[in-house]
Prior knowledge:
With 193 residues, the chain is α/β, with parallel strands linked by helices. It is built from nine helices and six strands; from the N terminus they run E-H-E-H-E-H-H-E-H-H-E-H-E-H-H. A six-stranded parallel sheet has the order 3-2-1-4-5-6, sandwiched between helices. Helix 2 links the parallel strand 2 and strand 3. Helix 2 packs antiparallel against helix 9. The longest helix has 14 residues. 39% of the residues are buried. The structure holds adenosine-5'-triphosphate (ATP).
Amino acid sequence: xxxxxxxxxxxxxxIHLGHLIVAELARCLLRLDRVLFVPARIxxxxxxxxxxxxxxxxxxxxxTENNPHFAVSDLELRREGPSxxxxxxxxxxxESPEGTDTYLLMGADSARDLETWKDSDILLEEATVVxxxxxxxxxxxxxxxxxxxxxxxxxxxxxxxxxxxxxxxxRTIRYLVxxxxxxxxxxxxxxxx
Length: 193
Ligand code: ATP
């Protein structure tokens, strides 16, 4: 059977348990051999991110290190300019053994915008787009919905922006991020202002 590679791109500022739960559910449901987390250097749809890419990369490594099926790529961090998923997909496919099946994991909010991504047609052709469909999202455009695999996942109301706000306001982030990520945020003094 061919190798099944899941690719999960994001800003991961910081990576939280919502990301990890979606990745693990997708891995099990789609029988993925590996899920590769790919932190973006400059996410085209969000613009420059205040948190250094190295911090986001290290937090992603910490959060995923105890799952043998998870790995982290620094591919987009090494590339100058906006981190286009289609370029990442091409590079990862070129580096993978022939016949590797690629699965692009994303939340419904990303799937909603997918049509506006660079070469979205190629993305939908060259990878299986997998959408964590948290509430049977009717507002994913038909052209994406028809070609994507929808994974019915529980609604996990955790977001990186909420975590950043919580740290800034001195509220708890326990059980929202991995303990190792919380320790890293504290020791590096991230998100305080
Ligand atoms: P922010 O709050 O800063 O916008 P975020 O929590 O959405 O960040 P990202 O790193 O931008 O985190 O997300 C990476 C991918 O993970 C996206 O495809 C997004 O849709 C998905 N995602 C993020 N949080 C969740 C969640 N709680 N459940 C399912 N998918 C999620």
